């Protein structure tokens, strides 16, 4: 049969089995090296992103504090201006009344 002839030819060839495990180990080592390099690059990128995010959070927090202080200052100024308007309005009323009294007197 054909199978028997092929088996006989294989066995009589004399070369025997040549292990290929060296190639497999080489391929696996190359894969490991590639994955380690990729991991290092990804880790570096992630660490940079974390650092950038931390800097952004710090800058935005500082900006929020500055804007909050500006809003509080402006609200206080609005209150002061409101009080000044009321005081000036009363002063205007008093001055208008005094003017009318002075006109009556003349």
TrEMBL record:
This protein's name: Uncharacterized protein
Superkingdom of the source species: Eukaryota
């Amino acid at each position: 049969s054909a199978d028997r002839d092929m088996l006989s030819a294989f066995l009589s060839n004399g070369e025997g089995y040549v292990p290929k495990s060296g190639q497999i180990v080489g391929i696996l080592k190359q894969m490991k090296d590639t994955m380690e390099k990729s991991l290092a690059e990804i880790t570096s990128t992630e660490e940079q992103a974390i650092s950038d995010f931390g800097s952004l959070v710090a800058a935005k927090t500082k900006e929020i504090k500055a804007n909050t202080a500006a809003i509080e200052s402006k609200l206080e100024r609005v209150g002061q201006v409101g009080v000044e308007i009321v005081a000036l309005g009363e002063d205007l009323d008093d001055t208008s009344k005094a003017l009318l009294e002075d006109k009556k007197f003349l």
